């Protein structure tokens, strides 16, 4: 089974930027759609961004214009570039193979001055 490992979370000031990485244990991006989700305490998990095997992207409404999802085939890695981080962005961010319902372990993002 494919495994996903997220990294890159941490503490950032409001208005700052952070890039998350999701490394897959084998090459899958040409076959499957990938996505980033997040879950804050007491809230439901929500879609942050997705990218299809064909390269089409979609974003949650509050992330449009601030977040960018991309992938690097050679490294089997999906990235989430986050800019202009706000007080509502802190959460555990999860990577997912949408087609297979396989999740990573998550990485914590904290936004605080």
Give the helix/strand layout:
Blueprint: E1 4-7, E2 10-12, E3 18-24, E4 34-39, E5 46-51, E6 57-59, E7 67-72, E8 77-82, E9 91-97, E10 102-103, E11 107-111
Parallel strand pairs: 2-11
Antiparallel strand pairs: 1-3, 3-8, 4-5, 4-9, 5-6, 7-8, 9-10, 9-11
Binned strand content: over 45%
Structural class: mainly beta
How much helicity do the residues have?
under 10%
The end-to-end span amounts to: 40 Å
Shape: globular
Low-confidence stretches: none
* Order of helix and strand elements from N to C terminus: EEEEEEEEEEE
Number of extended strands: 11
Main sheet? 7 strands, mixed
Give the rounded overall mean pLDDT.
95
Number of helices: 0
Radius of gyration, whole Å: 13 Å
Report on this model:
With 113 residues, this protein is an all-beta fold. 0% of the residues lie in helices and 49% in strands. The protein is built from no helices and 11 strands. The protein has strands at 4-7, 10-12, 18-24, 34-39, 46-51, 57-59, 67-72, 77-82, 91-97, 102-103, 107-111. The mean pLDDT is 95.
